[in-house]
Amino acid sequence: MRYLTPRERKRRRVQRLRLAGLILAGFVVFTLLDFPLLHLLYQDDWLRVQNHDWYRLLRIMGYLGTWLLVCLVYIAHDRHQHRGLAVLLSAGLAGLLAELLKLVIARERPVHDGIIQPGLYHFRGLFSGFENGSNLGLPSSHAAVAFGGCLMLACFLPRARTLLFLLALGCGITRMLTGAHFATDVYVGALLGWACSRLFCSFAGVHVPDLRPRYRLPV
Predict the structure, then answer these.
(1) Contacts for 209 with CB less than 8 Å, ≥ 6 apart
(2) Which residues share a beta bridge with 136?
(3) Rounded to an integer, what distance in angstroms lies between the CA atom of residue 196 and that of residue 89?
(4) How many whole angstroms separate alpha carbon 21 and alpha carbon 28?
(5) Which of 38, 47, 164, 167 has the least CB density, counted as fewest CB within 10 Å?
(6) Is there a contact between 70 and 149 (Cβ–Cβ < 8 Å)?
(7) What is the pTM of this model?
(8) What are the distances in angstroms from CA 102 to CA 53, 116, 178, 189?
């Protein structure tokens, strides 16, 4: 590990505090938007929505089998075979962490039996999900898998990072269209995916891609 000067350590602490503040602010914003977005996006006839090809395309981004296929393609055709494994592990670890957090937090899904649940959030109590893990929503494991796989792949294909990000975001939106998740469920799932991709990017020796658009200044 490279030695860091006191100034560099201070700069790194400031960056981490800013990142933590940004993540917390994002959670607060999405919490405020949870119910407006739920009423805006939720489709009563969600069974019809699921029959559309675009829905299926976006939904399977949160399916671990999709990333197993990507892993096999990488291993078969790329000389950096470990990259395919990194994509699969990033998606798989993110999904596993999301499933574990669901059992710990035990917050129910916003819609039950086709009806938006009355009141605000419905919590069963910490760790109660280990007794009954059905109908739990926070965080979205589909979003975690989608972001874990897409952002990891974006580390290796930086020119496709915007498209990959939109595919992962689209997967999260499909979960909201059917009433399976709040916006905060998708947000926390996306954070897990981002964290896992960052972890495996470090192991693979590549930088986490910057998803912000870049503009060239006029000469």
Answers:
(1) 151, 154, 155, 158, 161
(2) 108
(3) 8
(4) 11
(5) 47
(6) yes
(7) 0.88
(8) 29, 19, 18, 10
